[in-house]
Write a structure and sequence with these properties.
By secondary structure, this protein is of the alpha/beta class. It folds into 2 domains: 231 residues, Spore Coat Polysaccharide Biosynthesis Protein SpsA, Chain A (Alpha-Beta Complex); 58 residues. Helices cover 36% and strands 22% of the residues. It has 11 helices and 15 strands. Strands 1, 2, 3, 4, 5, 6, 7, 12, 13 and 14 form a 10-stranded mixed sheet that branches. The protein has a 3-stranded antiparallel sheet with strand order 8-11-15, with no helix packed on it. The chain has a two-stranded antiparallel ribbon with strand order 9-10. Strand 1, helix 1 and strand 2 form a beta-alpha-beta unit. Helix 8 packs across helix 10. The radius of gyration is 20 Å and the shape is globular.
Length: 355
């Protein structure tokens, strides 16, 4: 549950605020922040609009704040005394931002000069809530984040299928849709983000908060886009892995996945299928060793009243259903140039260091 109200600002100035949630990220910021600074400067030159960079620090115990003050004068730090997790920290950064567009980016992500302008161009449409960048693995160069598809199968929403767009079709025939915009490399309309309440802080410390917010936006009548011309490189799990055990990560992930389902399943049939398959998975976990599902389910039950009720959508009754959202995004596969990502078909784009 959100710890403090998030109230939409009356107005925000044109421009882009880059918000970097960070915890004990001094070494990562030293490596990747220069690419963000250069990307911000490139956006200002191309668009003639201002930018700012905000590091929303999550009560770091390293020397992040001192290092920023000494070496990054154009970066504004937003510290807090108590560690809260990703969703509260990102929300705090968005509230502190000046500009109408927000680029939320992890502290272990590298940008290039051309990352931001293609994203900002989408927001000429009032329907757009967020736009996701195309993400490559920093170490391997393999595509890891693109247009995210979804399906409801065996009682659960699957979110791990994705598609990419061939280069020749990337800028043609209108925007590309995605089920969700990742919280680690996506641009948001600040007013809409605050209007919907931001990332649900019940999902702290991490996991599924970006999926849940995107579903909330879709149901409210907004769109979430994917921009294949906006490229970033992500060094995965640079923050989570050193701080949490694998079992703890799985438990939190499963807990938040359940909370998102309990919020966004629409029909009695969906809910019944979910209950039946969850029961089967709990029994199966006794034999396959995935014990984390039990504490995850118990934690989710304890937190279920904290998850905010879905927005009711527009007054004219056009609120989208989960089924309609999944079908609409899946329809992108029929467009020329769209290809499923699989083991035999995933583009690579190695990072060329500019550091």
């Amino acid at each position: 549950m959100t710890s403090e109200p998030i109230v939409p600002a009356i107005a925000s100035d044109p421009g882009v605020s880059i918000v970097i949630p960070s915890w004990n990220g001094r070494a990562l910021l030293e490596r990747y922040l220069p690419t963000i600074v250069r990307a911000a400067a490139a956006f200002e030159s191309a668009s003639r609009e201002p930018t700012e960079i905000i590091v929303a620090d999550d009560a770091s115990s390293d020397d992040t704040l001192a290092w920023l003050a000494a070496h990054c004068p154009r970066v504004r730090a937003e510290p807090t005394a108590r560690r809260a997790g990703f969703a509260p920290t990102a929300n705090r950064g968005v509230r502190a931002a000046r500009y109408s567009l927000i680029y939320v980016v992890n502290n272990d992500v590298a940008l290039e000069a051309a990352t931001l302008p293609p994203l900002a161009a989408h927001f000429t449409s009032p329907a757009v809530f967020a736009v996701a960048s195309q993400v490559y693995d920093y170490d391997t160069g393999r595509l890891s984040g693109a247009g995210q598809l979804g399906e409801f199968r065996r009682g659960f929403i699957g979110i791990h299928r994705r598609y990419f767009v061939e280069e020749s079709a990337a800028g043609s025939d209108g925007p590309w849709l995605t089920l969700f915009a990742t919280g680690g490399s996506s641009m948001f309309d600040r007013w809409k983000f605050l209007e919907l309440g931001g990332f649900d802080e019940s999902f702290a410390p991490f996991g599924w908060e970006d999926v849940e917010l995107s579903l909330r936006a879709w149901k409210h009548g907004y769109e979430v886009h994917y921009e294949p011309r906006s490229t970033v490189w992500h060094r995965f799990s640079s923050t989570i892995t050193p701080a949490y055990s694998r079992r703890r990560v799985r438990t939190v992930y499963e807990r938040n996945r359940l909370l998102a389902h309990w919020r966004h399943l629409d029909t009695g049939a969906q809910k019944a299928a979910h209950a039946a398959f969850l029961a089967a998975k709990l029994v199966g976990s006794i034999f396959n060793g995935h014990w984390e599902l039990w504490p995850a389910t118990a934690q989710a039950f304890r937190r279920r009243s904290d998850v905010r009720n879905p927005q009711s959508g527009s007054d004219d009754g056009t609120r989208a259903t989960l089924r309609a959202i999944l079908s609409r995004v899946r329809g992108e596969l029929s467009r020329p140039g769209a290809r499923l990502v699989d083991e035999g078909c995933a583009p690579t784009h190695p990072w060329v260091s500019l550091l």
